[in-house]
Amino acid sequence: MSIHISALPSEIAKIVLLAGDPLRAKNIADNMLQDVKQVNSTRNAFYFTGTYKKVLITIGASGMGCPSIGIYSYELFNDYDVACIIRIGTAGAYCETTALYDVINANKAFSESTYAKEAFNINTNYQCHQGIAYELINTTAKKLQIPVKASNIHSSDVFYRSEKGIPTIAVENNCVCVEMEAFALFANAQYLNKMAATILTISDIIPTQEAMSADQRQNSLDKMSELALESALAINSWLKKNETT
After folding, report:
1. CB < 8 Å & 24+ apart, contacts of 122-129
2. Spatial distance between the Cα atoms of 86 and 143, rounded to a whole number of angstroms
3. Are the C-beta atoms of 231 and 137 separated by less than 8 Å?
C-alpha cells in the first residue's frame, strides 16, 4: 500500500498503463483484459489488474496535471516497484496537419512546469522518455500497421490561457501537441531509474476547434489502447530477458 493507492503490493503488475480518466481506465480494463480485478478505488482513482494475452497488466488513473500524475507514478515506481509506466492520454494538436485520432509517441516533453526542479532539482525545461519502452512502442506500431508520429510534445501546467496562439516553448521545440502529464512522469522515471513512455491520441485540433465529445474521449481510443497493450507484451519480454542476463 501507499499513501494514495490502497492496493496490495501483489495486486499491481510490473507494467502499468495510466489514463487520466478513471472511467477510461475501467473501459479499457473491462473490454481488453481478462480475469480483471479492481484493486484500488481510493479517491475514485480506479485501478484494475488483469491479463492481456497471459501477461499481467495494471490499468489505472493518474488524474490531470503534473502534480497528480507525479504522485501516482512516484508511488507506483517507489512503493510498488513498478518497472514501466505507459501513459495513455489525449492531446490537443497545435496544427491542422495533425488530425483527430492520430497517435503520438512522445519523444521529449517540454514544459514550463517547476515539477522536476522542485522535486529533484532537475533544471531542464524538458524530460525525455525513459528506457526502451519508446523504441518498443515504435517497433510494435509498425508490426500492427498503426501509424504513429514520434514527436516532441508540450506538457502544459494550464488548460486555459488568456493569450491566443501557440506558446513559445512549443514553437521553439517543434511540439506537435499539448497535454499535461508526461513531463512529470518522465521526471519521476529518470529520478527513480525506471521506464516510462507516453502514447497520446489527438482529441482536439486547437486552430479549428474540432474536438471529440466527452464520451468519445472515454470510450473511443481503441487504437491507442491496443498499441499500449501490445507494447506491454514486448516490454514484458524485454524485462524477462534482461532479468536473466
Report:
1. 122/187, 122/190, 122/191, 125/169, 126/152, 126/173, 126/183, 127/182, 127/183, 127/184, 127/186, 127/187, 127/190, 128/186, 128/190, 129/186, 129/196, 129/197, 129/198
2. 19
3. yes
For 108-124, what is the mean pLDDT?
Answer: 97
Query: Is 79 an active-site residue?
Result: no
CATH number of 9-214+225-240: 3.40.50.1580
Q: Which of 30, 204, 215, 222 is catalytic?
A: 204
**Cα-Cα-Cα-Cα dihedral sign, residues 98, 104, 110, 113:** positive
**How many Cβ atoms from other residues are within 10 Å of residue 233's Cβ?**
17
The conformation of residue 130, written as its DSSP 8-state character, comes to B
Take residue 229 and report the three cell numbers written for it: 497493450
Which class for 166: exposed (0-12), middle (13-18), buried (19 or more C-beta within 10 A)?
middle
Domain boundaries, the chain: 9-214+225-240
Determine the Cα–Cα distance for residues 170 and 167; give it in Å rounded to an integer. Answer: 6
pLDDT of residue 215: 79
The 10s digit of each residue's pLDDT in 193-215 is 999 999 999 999 999 999 988 77
